[in-house]
């Protein structure tokens, strides 16, 4: 079976969030299931060395008004295709916006080009490249299933929603420029509330829809989580499934992690002390007996960071410390920096993102706070489980599917892996933090939480099997 995976980012080449980790890990996970995955990415500047090492195998003289080439290269030993369209992708800034964070005005054109190239490839435009499945990830690839349908390409399509809040919405006046048949301007195509939604187009056209956790697959049928698409999701309920993301043990493994001063295993947890000391040093925290909580996150309303910011004085008063790495909304950044000024030695804040530092935080902090209002899957809690950094999470989406609350019954049964709270309010989060502090004061109970998490299997093994089954089911004759 041959799968063309289409996305806007993939680790380690280009990353802004968990989408990249998933897309980067899927080829190896599926290879174990006899599924050969080729990944298609845009030709951002970060991919220039990879493109230079590859070779051009196809050209588009006019792809949405610009010349484009298809470069064949490799991604960690797996096939990689790169859409080299300098007018669209070779620019300073990030994948989706400029250096100030403002979205590119032509994102509609940039990602329509990616989707159309994917559909052309699936339709046999590139000699020697035949595929059975086109797998589109998030809104940036959302038009690909629509183009496949319009072309009548001989492949089945899968649309994966990593976060339904990001929908790729544009003005309906752009529809003629997309080159889709007129009927797709309707509610049965790309039209969405008198505009265009690339994600909606993919959800409408794909043969199967997946989300990144079973709970999120249920939640997005509800108006509270569906972000206006709940009716469409409900109407396609038979085609929707939730498959929890995995993590790559070659990248996230405390026993071999070069970012840690002291690698360790579940049997050598005492070695984490050196990493804990390194966290103190990097974040200017005063050593202490209370737990170090960490946050590695976008600082946004979705992530519940406003609620955490509101209780930081209480966290410190209860005996906790905080090491935060993240960026996002400017008022929230300012609130965390102000708290660090109020509590020197107890709260340390780094605005921005640093991959190695995120590994150190998982390997040295005691607990990771993830009070998300909604969380399709979440990866940071999986990293926390793998590293013995106990997750303190809201009961939603993939957080609910992957963390077992340390309630009395779960503690007695020896199956608890973290702390789960209901509701994202200051009182609920502070209560969860106090529970964590109380458990941390019981070394045996805390160590059991750590070892339970570290011994759980959150690799891509089972997730890869489920994707492979989905692909094979799609290929079965009706």
Q: How are the SSEs ordered, and which strands pair?
A:
Blueprint: E1 2-6, H1 18-31, E2 36-42, H2 48-53, E3 55-63, E4 66-75, E5 78-84, H3 86-89, H4 107-122, E6 133-137, H5 143-151, E7 156-161, E8 169-171, E9 191-192, E10 195-197, H6 198-205, E11 208-211, H7 214-219, H8 223-226, H9 230-235, E12 240-242, H10 272-283, E13 292-299, H11 305-310, H12 312-317, E14 321-328, H13 330-342, E15 347-351, H14 355-364, E16 367-370, H15 380-387, E17 390-394, H16 397-402, H17 408-413, E18 419-421, H18 426-440, H19 443-455, H20 461-475
Parallel strand pairs: 1-2, 1-6, 2-5, 6-7, 7-11, 11-12, 13-14, 13-16, 14-15, 16-17, 17-18
Antiparallel strand pairs: 3-4, 4-5, 8-10, 9-10
Report a brief summary of the structure:
Residues 2-234 form the Starch synthase catalytic domain. The protein has 478 residues and is α/β, with parallel strands linked by helices.
CATH architecture identity of the largest domain: 3-Layer(aba) Sandwich
Shape: globular
Structural class: alpha/beta
Q: How much is the average pLDDT?
A: 96
Fraction in beta strands: 15-25%
- Stretches where pLDDT is under 50 for at least 5 consecutive residues are none
Rg, alpha carbons: 23 Å
Please indicate the count of domains.
2
| Tally of helical runs | 20
How can the largest sheet be summarized?
9 strands, mixed
Give the end-to-end Cα distance, rounded to a whole number of Å: 18 Å
